[in-house]
Amino acid sequence: MSASTRKRRWLTIWAITASAALVAIPAGAAPGGSGSPFGARALARLAAEREQSVGAVTPKVTAEDDDGGNEADEIAEGADQYAEARTSPGIVAPGAYGAAWKSLANLPASGGSWRNITDLPYNSDDARYRDIDSNSSGGSGNVTGRMAAIAADDDGYVYAGSAGGGVWRSRTGGGRWRPISDRLPSQSTGALALDGAGRLWLGTGEATTNADAYLGSGVYVLSDPHHGTFSARSRVGGDELESTTIHELRFGGGKVWAATSEGVWSHSTKKLTGAWKLEFAPNPDYLPGGSLASDPSAAYKNIANDIAIDPKNPGKVVLAVGWRSGDDYNGFYTKGADGTWTRITGGLGDLPADPDDVGNVTFARSADGSRYYAVDQSPEQLNTNPDSGLEGIYVSKSGSPTGPWTKIADYRGLAADGSALTTSGYMPGVQAWYNQFLTVDPADPAHVYAGLEEVYETKDGGSTWSTVGPYWNFSFPCWSIDPSKQSGDCSQTTHSDQHGVAIGSYHGKSFVYVGNDGGVYKRPLNGSQDPSGHATDWTSLNDGTIDTLQYYSVGIGKDLAHGGVSVTGGLQDNGQSILRSNDRVMGSNFGGDGGDTLTAPANGCDIAQEYVYLAIQVTENCAVNDGSWTADPAKATSYNVAPADNATGEARFIAPLAADDRNSSTWVAGGRHVWVQTHGYAIRSGSEWTSVYDLGAGRTATAVAVSGGKVYAAWCGPCNNQGFARGISVGNADGTGWHDITLPVDGTVPNRYLSGFAVDPKNADHVFLAVNGFSRHWTEGPGAGVGHVFESKDGGTTWTDISANLPDVPADSAVVTANGGLAVATDLGVVYRAPGRTTWQRVGSLPAVAVLQLKLGPDGSTLYAATHGRGIYTVRVRDLR
Q1: Per residue in 109-147, pLDDT tens?
Q2: Neighbouring residues of 52: CB distance < 8 A, sequence distance ≥ 6
Q3: What's the rounded Cα separation, in Å, for the pair 815 and 807?
Q4: Which of 359, 601, 655, 749 is the most exposed place for a label (fewest CB within 10 A)?
Q5: N- to C-terminal Cα separation, the chain
Q6: What is the 3-state secondary structure (H, E, C) of 41-90?
Q7: Based on C-alpha coordinates, what's the Rg of the chain?
Q8: Which is it for strands 317-321 and 331-335: parallel, antiparallel or unpaired?
Q9: pTM of the model
């Protein structure tokens, strides 16, 4: 990451909305990363490390990788930018998404039904794609989207709660999944837990505080989880926990306790009606209705992470409270004799009491009550130690959450116990604020699994540890890129970035289940290890029946080799998927976070894929490669072609990229500058881009479109709520005629994030504009205006609001169909305006999932929707009426 990018991430913004809403974090909060060093950026470094065993490899040193492949800095800025689109220029009031969901559900249907085309296995190690920018052979196997929480019982039932695609159930110990929460207004999972009566509790609102975490609509309970499904009627209590995230649900003393972004709450487990009780909020003035509720920092002033309940005395409870980047209120709290919650200032043993060393915390208790364990992330380490934010792993052998606690692991020790993360700047716990789980074997209080970026196991209470789920296999001697093997002689590992864990049984055998950025994996609870301590028996449970893939983009082109079409798309931490017409398994031809995508309509193997900050890779053969580039760099079949704004950091995390709809060889990319290149997929160097317009210092492009050489570029700068400004610039791809459009200050075009253009293929001066964020009904920022879709018939000079009955929901993308219809992607689904009409209809029936991009297939007959949590869907355009 460039120096300017590092500086920019210290700008602070917190944005918070409601129901299915996005939650973002201050950019300066952490140097964490949504993924890890993926693709060419890391492979080059790893190739250099294994040079003697593999043969001479010339590392590809690229501008986009001046941080040495370390993506740990990127998630904070990504969080800012993803949230800015939905919140700037102000703070969005709670209830916005809930109201939008109800409004959308009341729209008339357009006709047509969605078909999921990515509901099949997605093999991140597909042997066809061993190119330099791929992660194939890393060892993660079949993957799906991020899993935030896991629960399992002893009857073979497993429940997986995804970040944005709802809760899924397996009746076969994992696999053959079915969704069970599609009727809820929030598909974001924070916590899953089974109580002593076998009921399944769901806390909505993912609590990882990362780039694309969404708030929830409360807590729900399923009395018969083997057969039932969640519904709005199954919500516990009232609306007290709407618009929060829920980190953990714990049980004790006839209560369920919820650690939320608005303090710690409790509710009876016997009587599910009635309000939740606020047990403790360290800064109640910042809660909704409080005197400081509108303060920009309000959303992270009452964060609770976990609750530990003494098994011998359920009245003795310890709360782990605190913002992971540090605040005066951080610490452990317990209730005194006078009934008030008091910070514990000493007597915990090795477990820190200083607020600077208490951040994100996870507890776990042994089944016999003899031991408590804890993972603690330190704000001080996070802000000062580039290697790790982990303070340590601890045990209380008294079984009491008040200790005394003894440290049993730190990041240096874990790194030495078979970890793949041994490089300075990226060691175990570098993302401990984002990655945490902890569980204890019910039959053995000394047998513990801990999750950070990797999975760790101890069988002796922490005296020794093994990295049973290493980050990946690239750095190990057993690794090979040989396409005939998944990962050389290395055993399969899990995907990186751990979030959820559970222990359950199937057919009398006990298993540990883990959830991470790549889905769900399992291994025998007492499984086998190789001499390095790596597990030899992980099984991916991402069999294709569970599709929670988080797409940012989609691209479609003709599959010349097999007929039909090839579909590709960029994903959160799961690279770029590619689905060719004869595939029964999707492959991954690019690694890391996949951003925007271009695919030649006439040839689906001509692909350009954005990583982040306009780091663009291009291939003309689908990036098919047998790994021979490791011995001969000239045999690489994908090429880094980033324009210069990537090197200077003057582009957004997910930056806009577009091809001319009349000439696919002309591309436009947007950073601070509007970049054009005319070599199409034959481009081989970033120097082939030409800057045709400078948007200005501090401005970055948010959307670009080009048709017949006419270019539209939307920008923001500043892009947060500290003086937010937006605009549109228009000109020609040859560099002529560039000028800024004067947008009126009366709100005709709102002062909000401009997220997408749709150009009439018959007339380049006829263009539609999609506007993100919420209107002034929910946003108090200056100039928020109203409306989400606008039309110009004079090349952008004047605009008309055509939103009509469109719900007040963030709009992300738009496309004009061949018959003159207009489809718009929103944070809660897709709407359509038929030719000749002025009102909107809902397209099909999707869960409450964000649709970030729409595109048409090569012949215009099929509409493709890239959802951020439920894969890619299609609908026939002719069915939209």
Answers
A1: 999 999 999 999 999 999 999 999 999 999 999 999 999
A2: none
A3: 18
A4: 601
A5: 47
A6: HHHHHHHHHCHHHHCCCCCCCCHHHCCCCCCCCHHHHHHHHHHHHHHCCC
A7: 26
A8: antiparallel
A9: 0.92
